[in-house]
Amino acid sequence: MRSRILQVKDYREVDVKPLLKPFMPDEAALEAELKRLTNPYVRWETGESVSAGDQAVCRLVSDCPRFNKENVRFVAGSGMFHKELEALAIGMKAGEAREAELPEGRVSVTLTGVMNRVVPEPSDGMVKKLGLEGVETVADYRAYLLAQQKEAAFQDALYEPQKRLMAEVIAGSEFVLCKEDWAAVVNRELDRCRTLCRQEGMVLEEMTPEQFRGRIPVKSYHELVAMLQYDSWDSLCRCLLGRWYAQTDGFQAGEADYDAFIADYAATWHISVENAREANPYETFIFNEYAGHAYTVLKQYIRKFY
Fold this sequence. Notes:
By secondary structure, the protein is of the alpha+beta class. The protein has helices spanning 27-37, 83-89, 124-128, 138-172, 179-199, 209-212, 221-249, 255-269, 273-279, 282-303; strands at residues 4-7, 43-46, 55-62, 69-75, 97-102, 105-118, 174-176. Strand 3 (55-62) and strand 4 form a beta hairpin.
């Protein structure tokens, strides 16, 4: 590759803070996960009255055969049996009878038994049994869940700031881009698309708009060529940036990484290793790895402000 970088704009000079949405913890989701922690420890005890989540045992009397049963067991408020009758049972005491007027007819409900659902409070012992490294207490687990929330929110919010930062770095840097390198990027991507289509029994140059739909965001081969020609300038810049950053941060991509990628690609797409290699030549993999490394460097910078 004859293309090269003359000068790189320092991404640390770009203020990305205004581009980031503030993180807001989802307390309801945290509490739901803490409750989930206690699920294996829930126990049932004989009770006197029904609350939502308790098991109710009832005798139903009705002219409708569906609701004329001697012994019916359901969890009140679950909606798994009958929404109105479950709601009717909440608050009933053992031996009490109530009636409901349903579209199918009148139903008399007598509560014959109750099993109360007893949910313990989350404990450090429950947390330890999860086997999470460095997570020993309920407080640790809450912090762990909060960190997961924050990471998910960061990934959701990353696209625009990363895109803007990359655009500013490329615009502020000086490149020498050779036409043959740009053409090589375009042709590699065309060859990859051609191979993928052939593996599905299609000829890329002859594909219809319907065949493109869901595969590539164009309607014709000529639109695909135009899209790749447009995108490949930035792709080439990103690859050069990735190689520039790799000179100082030690990033390297090689045969071992390629073999691991091919194995994962073949398993993910349920194809042979041979087809995976044909669709992803080593040269293309290396190019994409360094282009991706440029994104990784900027991502690490953006993370500091989130």
